[in-house]
Every structure is written in C-alpha cells, then in structure tokens.
Amino acid sequence: MLIIDCHGHYTTAPAPHQDFRARQLAWLEDPAQPMPRPGAISDDAIRDSLEGNQLKLQRARGADLTLFSPRASAMAHHQGNEAVSAGWARACNDLIKRVVDLYPDNFVGVCQLPQSPGVPIAHSVGELERCVRELGFVGCNLNPDPSGGHWRSPPLTDRHWYPFYEKMCELDVLAMVHVSASCNANFHATGAHYINADTTAFMQFIEGDLFKDFPALRFIIPHGGGAVPYHWGRYRGLADMLKRPALATHVMRNVWFDTCVYHQPGIDLLVRVIDLDNILFGSEMLGAVRGVDPQTGHPFDDTRRYIDALPLAAADKRRIFELNARRVYPRLDAQLKARGL
Amino acid sequence: MLIIDCHGHYTTAPAPHQDFRARQLAWLEDPAQPMPRPGAISDDAIRDSLEGNQLKLQRARGADLTLFSPRASAMAHHQGNEAVSAGWARACNDLIKRVVDLYPDNFVGVCQLPQSPGVPIAHSVGELERCVRELGFVGCNLNPDPSGGHWRSPPLTDRHWYPFYEKMCELDVLAMVHVSASCNANFHATGAHYINADTTAFMQFIEGDLFKDFPALRFIIPHGGGAVPYHWGRYRGLADMLKRPALATHVMRNVWFDTCVYHQPGIDLLVRVIDLDNILFGSEMLGAVRGVDPQTGHPFDDTRRYIDALPLAAADKRRIFELNARRVYPRLDAQLKARGL
Q1: pLDDT tens-digit profile of A27-68?
Q2: What is the pLDDT of residue B20?
Q3: Mean pLDDT along residues B302-316
Q4: A12 Cα distance to chain centroid
Q5: Could you give the count of Cα atoms lying within 13 Å of B170 in the half-sphere of its Cβ?
Q6: Do A293 and B236 touch (CB under 8 A)?
C-alpha cells in the first residue's frame, strides 16, 4: 500500500522566493521600473528547506508521496494585478517543479493558478496547461474568492468559471477548492476563511447543476469538507427542501473530502457519515497547525494516526490512503504505474 | 426536568406582519409618503400561526419551553436604513411579546435588534433595554454582519461593539450570534452564511481578548457552533500557535453551543468534544430544515431524539436540556422560579 498525502504546501520555500514576492509588490509602487524577476535559489537551498521539514515528517509518519503545491496563504490573489499574479504563480510552480525533480519519489506537483479579482478565469487556463503538459503536474488549487475574504466572484457553479472547467476536463485533472490569505479582518485565514470556503463551495454545488454540465469534473473540498460532515443531516435536509437530487448522486460523484481534521473525534465522524470512496488522505503538513496536541502527545496534523486508529479493514484504509487518490488523479496513477507502483 | 429549547424563531408569523415589511421596503422608493405602520393582527391569527406549527411540535416532541425570537432570515439588516430597521425590529419584538402573553408557559421572548450597516451599535441599545425591561425578554440575537454576507463590520472583538456589550452586562442578558439573510450570491443563507458566521465568531473570540474586558459577557454560537466542534483539534492547535490561552479558559467560560445539528453523528461528536456545561438544547424548529430524514423516519430538526439517544446519565442530559440554560439566562431562571419551576 502507498500512503499518498493529497494536501501538502511548500510552506518552507527558501527566502529568495518570498523575497521575489516582496519585490513584486514593491514594484507596484513604481511600475516604471523593470518588473522584478525571481531570484536565484540553489538546489541545496531547496534540499535544506525540505530535509528537516516535510521530508523528515514524511519519513517519520510513514507517508510515501505528497501532492505538493505552493503555499496556499501566499497565493494572495487579492494583491497586485493580473501581471503580478501571473508572474508569482509561474515562479511558485517552477519551484514546485524543481522540488519534484529533486525528489521524484516523494513529491508530485499540483499548481497554483494566476487569478485576480475581476479577471476572466480563462486567463488562468494557460498556466494550468503549462503545469500539466510541460511540468507533469496532476492537479491545481482553484481559489473561489480571489478577493481574499470579500467574496466578490460569482459562485463556483456560475458560467463565469466554465472556461476553466472545460480545460480541467480536457486535461483530466482535479482542482482542490482552496482560498488564500484573508484581507477581511473578520476572517482569520486558516481558522475561518479556509473552513468557510469549504462549507460555502459545498453548498454552492448543492444549489447548482454544475455536474450535469460537467459530469467528469472533480473537486477536493479540503479540511475535511469544512463544516459539511458535522452538519451532514442539515445538508441532506437542505437538498431535500430545495428539491435537489440526493447528495450521493447530485454532488458526491464529483466531490471528495480530505482528512485534514486534527483530532480523532473529527476523523471518526468523517468516516461515519461520508462514503469511504469520497475520502482522500491529507495532512496539510506543514501547514495551518504545527504544534503537538497535549491530549495525545502527537502533532495535531499527523492525520495518519487518526486513520490508523479507525476500526476499518486494511482494504478500506487503502482506499483512503491510496486507491481513491489514484482514481481521482488519473495522471498521478499513470505516473505511479510508469514507475511500477 | 424542564426541556428548554434555546433556539426558536417565529417563522410562521401571520401574513400582515410580512406585509408590513413589504410596505416598509416599498416606502423606501417614495419616502415622501408617511412611513408605514404595522398592520392589525388578531390574537386568533397568532394562535392559528402557532397551534399547528411550533406548539404542535413542542407537544409532540415533549419540549416545555422555547426561547422565541423573530425570524432570523427576515431581520435582513442589509435592507432599508436605520429608521426602517428600527421600525421592523420593534414590530417583530412586539409580536413576540404577544406570543409570550398568549402562551406564557410555552414561550419566553428573545429580541431582534435594529442594526444597519455603518450605524453605530450604540443605536441598538435602546431596543434591547425596552425588550428586556419592558417586555420581559431574556436575551437577543446579535448579527455580526448586518451587511448580509459582505462582512463589512469590524470583528465582534472590536471596540465597535463595546457599547452594546456594556448594556448586555448591565442587563445580564445573553446574545446569540446570529446572521440573517445573505445578499451575497456566494452564500446560501442557512446552508453557508449561518454556519460560516458561527465558525467566524468563534475564531474571532480566539484571536481577541474580549472576555478579559467583559468577564461576564455570554454568547451562544448556534447551529452546534458551526464547524468548530468538528475541527476542535484545529482550534486547540491554532490557539496554541497564536499564543492564546487554552480554549477552556480563554473562550469557553463565555461561549455556549446549541444542539441544532441535524443528525445523530453530529450530536455524538458535539458531546464528545465539548464540555456538557457548554451545550444548550436547541432545535431551530421550525427553521432551516423542515423535512423528514429518510434514514430515520423522523424530522431532521427533532434534535431531542439525538440527545435522548446519547449514553449519558439523566443528570447530564438535564444539564443540556435545562440547567445550563437557567444558568446562562438568569432572567429566564428568575421567571421560572417565580412560577415555582
């Protein structure tokens, strides 16, 4: 059995990378200057940033492979403009590609998209295509709120997003619905905005008919599906009240939840109410919560422990750890098969 | 043991009441006309609106008493202006008072507040005081987002809200954090906006130091605390990462969750992770979800069944059904004692 972590971000990228971002944003103050370019980062700097962090924890926790994308909170699509966002996404994705090339057994690439408030999503298609066709990435993170907590884009079920979905289907890649930093003081990024976005996306899928138009479109709603599994009765009841089809057919053929839920009772609930075929192992390591749970003595985000503790057959755990991911990421499956895995 | 439902809204108010609202909003188009006044509603119309609905279900489900407030989704603080909102809140609260007078054994009043985007919260103090001192209400619903899904007010921990908290403490009344309708197409009201607001408020309380300034201030976060219990590990971990005190002392001396979670697994999780002293029985009946769960054959919002099914001692269930409510609503407790209960 492979242990595939579907949710990892490069939160420890070398300093010159974040410095490039700072120079980008500073450049906006004086755009007569030439646009900044990414700074040099050595292979050793990349190795150093990973060996003591994600790689160490992969080994310690027994994960084989992480689907690795740029730091979500740093996407910050609300900052800058379309050109800045495009340059930043490209630099972030190129760095992920270098990580994958240095550690092809440990990481598979998932891309950040260039998005900006008010910019048509069709402008994000090129970077997706580049990352999938040229860099070998297997998915992307799609931000439903590039305004950063002001929620000024149409719902994910709106035709606004369709040009992007067409390309996702053509490339047969999945999107994780993932917001970024919040510039709305009401919403702490990882404590409110992320979880709210997950809940919001799910309810949009109930209200809309997106998967009738795109039967093959696939999303992960991360962080255990936000509030949804805890309120599963509410969502089943709302679907009924709104005269929508049952969730199993209307939404759950196209949507998966990860296991980024940082305590045993939450994971227990998740597997109790959600079909195991809709759950992908994920940890978001190193991400939102990096400490040790004093109640267990283990890191909050060591989500493998919670799955291991479930009273499930080994074959069922394998669905969560490996098989569901290989099914929903066909390009990942193809890469693994090419390696004889 | 009394069964006290802390979360009921008058969702079935007679037609002239909603008609008054329609005339209010129409008046905004032509404010040279005299401001509309509430239409006449007979006692019989009020009885009719309740007998076949909330009262029938109270009896069928064995609840004794509902803390009853105006329909939350109709507060719609984003519509109209300060004068319209004030007139609407007063009419809604006066109608609740009539319900309480007609059925003093079944209902206790909780008030809607006049709020409007950009209007100082000090302007809401008068209606709270009127409802508590003159009408005998025991609490209020406070909307953290009067913009209706655009989230343009400061966080609940901001000094913006302090004039209202001072009055709450003076009157010794509790607020339920409760948003209203959403005018942001991203957020379905009961499926996303409500749950997101619950999650958001909790995270604001973690980030802030509100309860240091107001040690006696008390809130209910409804709908089972939004996403919070499901992600309890995340919130414990975030409090630690943000160098906040432990949740038990920093937030949970001042915050309670209700049981508006519409399936057994959700309620099981709630009582597993949240101290029983922080849980109040609530159903939101008749509210967001009115259908019958095909998995159980019982209404989704018959939350008493989920509590009854818990493997808890009778004394512990009594905390959830009665004693916690009497503790956090001292004015309710005084009213009950005056009746010999």
Answers
A1: 999 999 999 999 999 999 999 999 999 999 999 999 999 999
A2: 98
A3: 98
A4: 16
A5: 12
A6: yes
Q: What is the DSSP string of A236-302?
A: HHHHHHTTPPPHHHHTTTTEEEE----SHHHHHHHHHHS-GGGEE-----SSS--SEETTTTEETT-
- CB contacts of B233 in chain A (<8 Å) are 261-263, 266, 289, 293, 300
Cβ atoms of B146 and B118 closer than 8 Å: no
Around Cβ B340, how many Cβ atoms within 10 Å?
A: 5
**Cβ–Cβ gap B237/A200 under 8 Å:** no
DSSP string, B141-206: EE-S-TTSSS--SPPTTSGGGHHHHHHHHHHT-EEEE------STT--IIIIIHHHHHHHHHHHHH
**Hey, are the CB atoms on B151 and A184 less than 8 Å from each other?**
yes
Mean pLDDT, residues B279-300: 95
Locate the chain A residue with the closest alpha carbon to B232.
A263
A144/B contact by beta carbon, under 8 A: yes
How far apart CA A261 and CA A293 sit, in angstroms, is: 13
pLDDT in tens, A209-246: 999 999 999 999 999 999 999 999 999 999 999 999 99
Nearest to B257 by CA among B139, B323, B177: B177
**Distance from the A337 Cα atom to the nearest Cα atom in chain B, whole angstroms:** 35
Least CB–CB distance from A224: residue in B223, B230, B240: B230
Cα(B236)–Cα(B61) distance, integer angstroms: 35
Enter the ipTM.
0.98
Cross-chain CB nearest to A293 (options B231, B233, B272): B233
Alpha helix positions (H), A7-81: 15-27, 43-51, 54-61
Determine the Cα angle at B68 with ends B63 and B71, to 5°: 125
CA dist., res. A325 & res. A321, Å (int) = 8
Q: Is B322 a catalytic residue?
A: no
How far CA B138 is from CA of B11, B75, B141, B333, B341, in Å, comes to 19, 19, 11, 9, 16
In this model, does residue A288 exceed pLDDT 90?
Answer: no
Residue A208: count other Cβ atoms within 10 Å of its Cβ. 17
Q: How close does chain B come to A156, measured CA to CA in Å?
A: 8
B240 — contact with chain A (CB < 8 Å)?
yes
Q: How far is B65 from chain A (nearest CA, A)?
A: 23
* Residue A44 vs residues A198, A265, A285, B112, B275: alpha-carbon distances, Å: 36, 40, 21, 61, 49
**Diameter of chain A by CA atoms?**
63
Tell me if chain A has a CB within 8 Å of the CB of B224.
yes
CA distance B145 to chain A (A): 9
Judge: B230–A290 Cβ closer than 8 Å, yes or no. Answer: no
Torsion B62-B66-B71-B72 (CA) sign:
negative
* Residue A235 sits at the chain B interface (C-beta within 8 Å): yes
User: Contacts by A30-33 with C-beta closer than 8 Å and gap 24+?
Assistant: none
B195 contacts A227? CB cut-off 8 A: yes
pLDDT band at B288 (very low <50, low <70, confident <90, very high): confident
Q: How far apart are CA A56 and CA A53, in angstroms?
A: 5
Dist CA A88 CA A37 (whole Å): 10
Chain B's closest residue to A196, CA to CA, is: B196
